Amino acid sequence: MLRAMLAWHLGLRYLKRRRTAWLALAAITLTVAVPVAVLGVMQGFIDITRLQVRANESDLTIESPWQSGPLVQDAEDLATVMGTTGVANVAPFVSTYAILSPRGTNADLRQNLPCLVDAIDWSRDEVMGRLTPQVLHPRPVTDLHAPPLAPHERGTGFLTPAWRDHLALTGMELVGGLGIGPLPLPPRLRPHPGVVVGRELAYSKGLYPGLTVRLTVPNGSGGTTGQITAEISDTIGTGIYSVDSMAGLLPLPLGQRLADLHARGQRPAALSGYRVQVTPDADPQTVRRQLMLNTGQQVSTWMERGSANLIKSFEIQRNVMGLVMVLIEIIAVFIVYAIFSMLVADKRHDLGVLIGIGAKRSDIGKVFIMMALFLSLVGGLLGWLLGWGFLAALNPFCRITGIQLFPQDVLYTPEAPISWDARVPLFFITIMGVVGWAAAWLPARQASRIDPIAILREGG
Amino acid sequence: MSIVAGSSRLVVSGIAKAYPGLSVLKDLDLTVAASEVVAIRGASGTGKSTLLHCLGLLDRPDAGSIRLDGDELTALTGNARSAARARRVGFVFQAFHLLPEFDVLENVLMTARTAELPLAAAEVRARDLLGRLGLGDRVRQDVRTLSGGERQRVALCRALLPQPQLLLADEPTGNLDPATAAVVLDQLLDLARQAQASVVIVTHDPAIAARADRRLTLRDGRLHAEA
What whole-number percentage of chain A has pLDDT above 90? Predict the structure, then answer.
């Protein structure tokens, strides 16, 4: 303990009296602050992208194999899926590509836009955490006659007549099943069922709520074309470009009619598949395997679907940037080494005298190791503080100055998303500690090998 | 020639030390009793400082043994050697060798730290020693602002703080004016006697040598008693 105290006593005093020590502290602080700030923003983008992707993708998706045809919408199948261990919620869907073209007076009928139709049972999707209002409804639009919104105002909302109809019908079925009787429905303002288009699609093509469009599927019933006319009831912004530039959400029955999957005669209604939410304690891979066994269908995880690549690409960028930052920290070895070598040369007399009066050589070496660890720790904590301070000030600064560092047209977020994950600063402080130790090792060794006789002969 | 005193604290037997092309100490013997003051004189380059460094465990003789209160010291290595130097041997240098980064009290306490003594008790003793040497009101003073005599007193307190069995002084008054030198020497001898430390002083000064119990001359690598 006393030996450690001697090293601390000397080390702290030398640090206090040396300007170069403060320089080392500043260098360490900055080399920790920069990665903390940079990776805080990068991790923020990853987090928000993951949130957006997860808002679009369920944990698991059951689809029939390509050659097998659609799944029959069957209560027994649904019960089988729900009865599988680890399944929390299930939502049916119909997915198909369609051509979207405008209708009505003044419409340019030559426009044929690709549209990825996703016909869903909204209430079931919402229950399972997909397309939640928290993610998708920053500012719901309820006025169908309102003019197109500015990009930063564009949001989505489903309180439109078509969706209200759909929800009311769902409610009716439920209430009817319980034998209570029909509930009073909200007033139907418009007779047409609606389509909710991706806001990027709406923005780039000038689509807006209230506009009538036609959706056409080349392969309809019996080889004929499937077609519906619907009103754009709203726009949806998920933050995922591939979705927002092509998506067209429809109520499930309408989607079934469009894709020719609705019940007709003896033919039961069919689905593209089911989206499945897994219970928090279940292993998705285990549930996946079990579902494949139970249903005989193809089951994929959200990571296997297209949008997951976006997260992976961000993660690769983050990892590369992190590696660069670690290399920068390693360069700090030379700064700390140079400063400590100067300190050893400067304090050669004192260190020699201390060895002369009985200080252990190992203690003299420890002076520099402890100084380096102290500087790394204090500098690292200051760097953490500075890095997070920068992150905290980033968005207010952009708001006040009007500087758009992250254009929202691209990123769908008006502000820089920031991650406050403490593991990032802790990682870089740890690296700095190792770097500091390595940088001080050689000067410490030099110090512990000072010849006291030479010093004592030299005179004061 | 063997130089022997009564009850022996320090017993040096046949030590030798040579540098390339130069034999400095040759089969040298020395015995110093407890509380005895021995002065060693000799021309420049005869090996006085080398002898002192060997006695103080700073240097290692090529041959022979050094025993302090019966303990063989020459065989000690590493931390044990440092510990023995810190606890059993005190040094007073001509050039004081105080640490400018620390104040008076901190300089004195430095030997308590190297000897791993309890700091609270050591501080009481340090203040007492400084008080006895007239530096009681200067404990927090920057050592760079002290006079030569004051610096040597601080160095003396530092050397005696761990109550060493052996005090080694290399030209302790060499940098002081005659009047101050006399005072400092008096204080050195007084404190050493009170602490019952054996003292070996290397000096050119006949006046200092005259104050010693025994006077020896280092010549041709060996010690010779002076008349």
Answer: 29
Q: B114: distance to nearest CA of chain A, Å?
A: 5
> Does residue A453 sit at the B interface (CB-CB below 8 Å)?
yes
B89: closest chain A residue by CA: A357
Is there a contact between B215 and B225 (Cβ–Cβ < 8 Å)?
Answer: yes
| Structural domain span for residue B43 | 8-225
ipTM value: 0.90
Which string of DSSP letters, residue by residue, matches A330-394? HHHHHHHHHHHHHHHHHTHHHHHHHHHTT--HHHHHHHHHHHHHHHHHHHHHHHHHHHHHHHHHH
**Looking at CA atoms only, how far is residue A364 from chain B in angstroms?**
10
- Does A370 lie in the same domain as A453? yes
Is A348 an 8 Å CB contact of chain B? no
3-state DSSP assignment of residue B95? coil
Burial class (CB in 10 A: 0-12, 13-18, 19+), A67: exposed
pLDDT digits (tens, 9 = 90+) for B212-226: 999 999 999 999 987
- Residue A118 domain boundaries: 58-305
CATH of residue B106's domain is 3.40.50.300
Chain A CA closest to residue B168: A357
Largest CA distance in chain A: 112
Query: What's the structural domain count of chain A?
Result: 2
